[in-house]
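Help!! Second protein's tokens look totally different from the first
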Amino acid sequence: MALWFVPVIVAVLYGAALFWVAHAGDRPMLARYADRHGRAIFGLGLAVYCTSWTFYGAVGTAASSGWQYLPIYLGPILMFTLFGRFVGRVLQAGKAQHSTSIADFLSARYGKSAWVAALVTIIALFGALPYMALQLKSVSQTLTALAPSLSGLLRGEEVALVVALAMAAFAVLFGTGRLDLTQHNRGVALAIALEAVVKFVALGAVAAFAVLLLFSDAPGLE
């Protein structure tokens, strides 16, 4: 019997859990937890950088080119370790100007120029599209790999479209739906932290499985 619906149900439940955490993040109990463990939650939130690019980009580069994958991570590591004060000053300036995007921030530095904002928006859009496409591709390929029978009902492009619509709904409900985007959104921060924990567990399990396969194939270790 085909069990294609099991990964789909798991994905829906996982998405529902993230929605619930994002929605309940401003409630008193979770808000106190978020304030108490703010540093840990912020640190886990940085793991959003390790998404599909880690699997398709860094891992693929490491497998094919060895240590050439390191620059992918050296940039963020150096920025937050050596230039932490610069990052803090940028954040303070953004809050003081009520900037809600990189386009708002840069345009404010040039007298709220609409041309600068439009140019930065276009550059950011074309720069982010490949990463968003890679993210959607990874989700659709993962669902297809876990549930091969699903391909008989939906094509890869249709699965990616459903995922894109779900992401858009999340952004509208917990992002653009807020009147002041410069306010702290504890719910979204908690949801990203929860997702980071899931990623660490999943990547750790894959790494352990790879190590077991490596040692089981090594001569003299069978």
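Here's the second one for comparison:
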Amino acid sequence: MDQGEKIIEVVGLTYVYPDGAPALKNISFVVYAGESVGIIGPNGAGKSTLLLHLNGLLRGKGKIFVAGEEINQKNLRKIRSKIGLVFEDPRDQLFMPTVFDDLAFGLINQGKKEEEIERKIQKVLSELKLEGCEARPARRLSAGERKKASLATVLVMEPEILLLDEPTANLDPGGRKSFINILKNLSLTKVIATHDLDLVRQVCSRVILLDKGIIVAQGGAADILNNTSLLQAHSLA
């Protein structure tokens, strides 16, 4: 794959939890525009913690650049307009009375006009095959619909980068297949933290293997995922 513009660059990122436990230790890597990168590793490896640093929800030592700009307090709002984070649990994403309200929330805060909000929401609902769900509360949706609605709240904001934490967790086989197909068809840059190695194989061109807060390996998805001894050593086989 030809490497284009660096859209994310992490340099020497270190983070320690408030209880003193180390979470990330001198992490450095690059993501290029248009890439899909899988972050894999066992439980407690630091995958979710890493994602939360990429949009500034957590702040460790080291530097993180997004689209050439270093994340800091002054430009945090601008950075977050470029990055959308989809949480593992839809309950962390969907909190309004209806799906429509959830999708409208960020657009309203941006000061968008009513007609534009309606147009953007209907476009995303159509793309994710969620038509007819807009008036329903999240609790009335299936697990697959909730996952797609969570994704929709991010896509409607038209980010350049999509961060996903365990996107196929708790989905049945049909819902999982449907969600993977959606991700495969999204052209924006994606960083996916997951245990689902088949998802990574289908969607990601490159893989970063984390364990105990350290990058153990990074490289082409096929090279990493076909290295059975490496995966077994890190509880992923």
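Reply: Different proteins will give different token patterns, so don't panic. The mean pLDDT is 94.
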